[in-house]
Inverse folding.
């Protein structure tokens, strides 16, 4: 009788957490080189977008593994001087500012200076007297303001003109009350007003005006030295002027709105170099790991921003014989979506008179993109989405792969021995309490023998393909095909086998766990 001792690998002194819980990693040494091969196609996509939309000036960039790997531009900073757009040209990014404001809130939360569950009235006293839409509405919380779930009305046309509103204006409006379009916490509704309020919360919780807190506590920590809330602080030689396209085909200059109480909703100006640092910072929060913290806000808090807190849309369309499906919602200051190409897409756009911008990144892939344009509401989300397809074609846009944890690898050895020669005593040693209740020993032996009769002698066993730290699969190569072995461990110490199944499979590429691609019949191809 053969026994395999199970290592209690979580015990102190045995393995570090980083060993027990290894983070996912990229495995293709040619990955970056492959991605770089798409740059010419990416540039062609953006240049065509700029030309088709008659954009006076535009810049775009690609971030890979924390580096601004590629940046290009088209057009001019202003139509009078004809100065070419460069990576140091300063664009207003409008609502992309919202995620910076969230970083300020989360930094204060992490420092214990506020809670996301605080009633808004704690930081904005006018809310204590504000009428809510129903008698059973709970007091509004900071988290609802962050996630566009407070019930305030959508206000883009109105909000675009409020950047210069004074603190006195905001106080006056608050005293008059805010009308609600939906009950709080019931649905998504985009609100610039909400993010104007967050600026006041930052001011009151920090004891420092928002327009000082953001540059000193967030921008400077990210080394975004050419980013500012004050248009007057941008040097003339790098200032991009915003334009609108008039019906007669000529351009009208949009005067810049000065910084005011709504700057926290859309007032930031930045450059491609600085915005590349910002996208890189968000990507650096992934994957969760044991490395020392380096940013102004905890990595876990940055990841918290990219969780879909408020669902908004499920979109289905049928074009060119293919079904296209996407789901989207809002995190904290960021829009979150998934489609049948990518499970987790993070981004946000910005639009103001004279400007349109977008940033988007794939946390699991380590790649992000952004673009800024000097034409009213010329949001460049479309070319970014098309550029993802260009990267996919290179074969380099692949997710990190999760290494097998020590306990999965250890259990593989036990399970492999049971496949070769089933032994009840050995099986009981690794079995969770439900294991033999779900399928008695005789049934499990019979299932194994039935598959053995179909596949013949098995000559090799592959490594564990981890689905997570406590669930995985390994494959057996046999005379007449292959066998997939799928197992899940229990939430006990030490973990034990709660589920084990053997399946005859056609190839080693078949995964028996959670689906890793689009459901049958769904496509994202053009």
């Amino acid at each position: 009788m053969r026994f395999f001792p199970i290592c209690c690998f979580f015990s102190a002194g045995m393995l570090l957490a980083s060993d027990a819980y290894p983070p996912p990693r990229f495995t293709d040494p040619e990955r970056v080189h492959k991605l770089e091969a798409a740059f010419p196609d990416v540039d062609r996509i953006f240049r065509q977008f700029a030309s088709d939309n008659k954009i006076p000036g535009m810049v775009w960039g690609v971030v890979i593994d924390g580096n601004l790997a590629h940046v290009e531009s088209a057009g001019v900073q202003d139509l009078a001087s004809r100065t070419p757009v460069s990576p140091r040209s300063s664009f207003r990014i409008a609502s992309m500012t919202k995620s910076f404001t969230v970083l300020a809130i989360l930094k204060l939360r992490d420092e214990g200076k506020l809670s996301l569950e605080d009633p808004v009235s704690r930081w904005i006293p006018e809310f204590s007297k504000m009428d809510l839409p129903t008698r059973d509405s709970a007091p509004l919380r900071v988290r609802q303001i962050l996630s566009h779930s407070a019930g305030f009305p959508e206000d883009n046309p109105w909000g675009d003109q409020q950047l210069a509103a004074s603190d006195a204006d905001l106080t006056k409006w608050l005293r008059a009350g805010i009308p609600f379009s939906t009950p709080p916490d019931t649905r998504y509704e985009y609100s610039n007003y909400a993010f104007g309020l967050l600026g006041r919360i930052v001011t009151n919780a920090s004891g420092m005006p928002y327009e000082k807190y953001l540059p000193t506590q967030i921008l400077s920590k990210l080394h975004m030295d050419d980013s500012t809330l004050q248009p007057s602080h941008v040097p003339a030689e790098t200032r991009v002027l915003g334009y609108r396209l008039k019906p007669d085909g000529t351009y009208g200059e949009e005067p810049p709105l000065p910084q005011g109480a709504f700057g926290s909703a859309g007032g930031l100006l930045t450059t491609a170099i600085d915005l590349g640092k910002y996208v890189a910072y968000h990507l650096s929060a992934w994957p969760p790991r044991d490395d020392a913290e380096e940013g102004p806000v905890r990595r876990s808090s940055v990841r918290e921003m990219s969780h879909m807190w408020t669902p908004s849309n499920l979109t289905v369309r049928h074009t060119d014989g293919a079904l296209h499906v996407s789901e989207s919602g809002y995190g904290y200051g960021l829009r979150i979506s998934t489609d049948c190409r990518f499970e987790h897409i993070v981004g946000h756009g910005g639009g103001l008179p004279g400007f349109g911008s977008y940033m988007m990144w794939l946390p699991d892939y380590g790649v992000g993109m952004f673009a800024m344009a000097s034409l009213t509401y010329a949001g460049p989300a479309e070319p970014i989405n098309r550029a993802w397809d260009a990267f996919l074609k290179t074969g380099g846009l692949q997710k990190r792969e999760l290494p097998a944890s020590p306990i999965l690898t250890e259990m593989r050895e036990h399970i492999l021995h049971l496949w070769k020669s089933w032994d009840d005593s050995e099986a009981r040693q690794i079995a969770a309490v439900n294991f033999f209740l779900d399928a008695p020993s005789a049934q499990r032996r019979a299932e194994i023998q039935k598959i053995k009769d179909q596949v013949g002698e098995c000559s090799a066993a592959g490594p564990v393909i981890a689905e997570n730290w406590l669930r995985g699969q390994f494959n057996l190569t046999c005379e007449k095909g292959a066998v997939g072995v799928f197992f899940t461990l229990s939430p006990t110490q030490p973990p034990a086998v709660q589920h084990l199944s053997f399946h005859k499979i056609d190839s080693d590429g078949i995964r028996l766990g959670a689906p890793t691609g689009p459901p049958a019949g769904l496509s994202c191809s053009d």
Notes: The chain has 18 helices and 17 strands. Residues 407-505 form a domain with the Nuclear Transport Factor 2; Chain: A, fold (CATH 3.10.450).
